Amino acid sequence: MGRYETVFRAAAEDPETFWLRAAEAVDWEAAPTRALDSSRAPFHRWYPDGRLNVCYNAVDRHVEAGRGEQPALVYDSPVTGTRRTYTYARLRDEVAAFAGALTGLGVGRGDRVVIYMPMIPEAAVAMLACARIGAVHSVVFGGFAPPELAVRIDDAAPKVVVSASCGIEGRRLIPYKPLLDQAIELAGHRPEKRVIVQRPQERAELGPDDLDWADLVATAPAAPCVPVAATDPLYILYTSGTTGKPKGVVRDCGGYAVALLWSMGAVYDVGAGETMFTGSDVGWVVGHSYIVYGPLLAGATTVLYEGKPVGTPDAGQFWRVAAEYGVKTMFTAPTAFRAIRKEDPKGTLAAGYDLSRLRYLFLAGERLDPETYHWASALLDIPVIDHWWQTETGWPIVANPVGIEAAPVRPGSPTRPLPGWDVRVLDPSGQPVPPGTDGAIVVRLPLPPGALPTLWNDDARFVGSYLSAYDGYYLTGDSGHIDEDGYVYVMGRTDDVINVAGHRLSTGSMEEVLATHPDVAECAVIGVADTLKGQVPRGLVVLKAGTVRESAEVEAELVRLVRERIGAVASLKDVAVVPALPKTRSGKILRKTMRGIADGLDEPIPSTVDDPNVIETLRPVLRRPEQQA
Ligand code: COA
Ligand code: AMP
Asked: What's the predicted TM-score (pTM) here?
């Protein structure tokens, strides 16, 4: 039996012992005597009697252990020409000061703080400051428009919102403050205060409820770490579901700290003093887990990179970062590599940097296409590791755990389930399928530490969305299969979620927006293959009878509407007015059929179709060659 199998079995056969042992790597105020509490199943809780502070584990304890002068976080921002290093001691002081400022604003244990920020170090400082005082942060990705921010503000009901005067997208400056003001106007809930980081590129005008970050921290007393229950929420992270209302994924403190710390060694092979660079954004789960908490819990150095992998100034920035900071493990979404490859197909820019310390490239967030895998492998000559997980799970479900034992890579598979994850593939009746057969990918309950215990203020939706399809299983929303050797293949979502440039979006929410246009009778949004972003949304709308306006005019308005309501990140740039949408005889829109045609597949026309002519009319509209992979 190999090492992977030994560890996997240990976690499966005696999870209590396995996860209590893993918990020893965390510093507890009260060490847990039990790992799992299933007394309220299906609401499982990890480390029910443990008490800890996640910020203490991520920051202070490393200072106490003598790592105070080691870089904890390196801020690298080619878009502003800034590089700044925060040692663990400096990070502790800045986090303690902002935690003191939040305390002064009346924020305490269990209170929520919404963070709407670009990729600046203050975003990580704000997250850790919340963790320090037991407050619950909810980071909202900066590419979301005010209405999306408003929905999250209403759901999380924060006492304080932390933001910045502006973000920088390539060469464009995006003023954040007006977006925040609009969101607060739209929201029913009114946060008491807003804290704004004034960036030199553009300062914001502050109103009576706004406070300048710099003023606040200048006078704030350092706040100590407040130990909380392991089961207390650390954060809420909203993610797209089938409908427009995002799901507030809750993360606990204890289970998350243990699982992340365990994954840093077992999966990413990163330990204290080593450097990890995750090219993502703190607004996504990848940013929460592997820009902020994971590397810091491990006492490693993390790189917080502001900018795109390409553009400003060139497509060699990821190589520069890797060389300059001696990155051992790099993690990003495949789309970033597709973008780099598009600009620099021969990888000439990489040749200009010393990448000898780069040991692994991890990719996740969307399917890793074989071309990207082969290109990156040939260019870097290091293991390129696909791995599969979700906002809900907090850390990888399936990976090639190089820190335990590297398995031979099979392109197309993120490899095997990690210890703690009992992954199965079921048919629609709930029966397991034979190896190699596609079905719904599910995980047998209980989920391991670090995975979501519930949705914020919505236990019923948690059960309805994830636990009710198959009794005793968590529904991942992905379909795929497992081969004879236990390798998992993730083929795609079974719901309305799409992945655009590694960003998880809901086509359902885009349809909800399109449907509000006064000229739209009905609409559908489908995700179609895209050579750069993996998938992009495409809208198809039928206008109301009697509408006399030019189609092009309505199409442009609809593109603008989605940008204003959901945000630029939705990337809906293609909306077409069509005479009719294909439907079944019972009136269900045939989205899957349209998707198949758009992707150039030989999609069979379902026998339930109402009028096959509608599909034939749509074929030329759906098949736009520039969108096809
Ligand atoms: N604030 C404001 N606007 C933002 C934003 C932010 N934080 N993030 C993205 N946007 C905007 C972009 O400027 C763009 O606007 P545009 O339509 O006016 O050009 C739009 O949202 C779409 O952004 P994106 O999908 O990221 O496309 P892009 O062309 O700007 O960049 C990539 C494409 C592939 C280079 C980029 O998405 C990337 O590097 N992704 C990989 C890493 C990653 O983020 N992964 C996330 C999960 S691991
Ligand atoms: P998010 O919650 O934003 O991390 O998105 C999670 C979803 O992204 C998953 O449910 C998958 O659909 C997709 N995904 C993430 N990683 C992979 C991967 N390695 N291969 C295929 N799909 C992936």
From this structure: 0.97
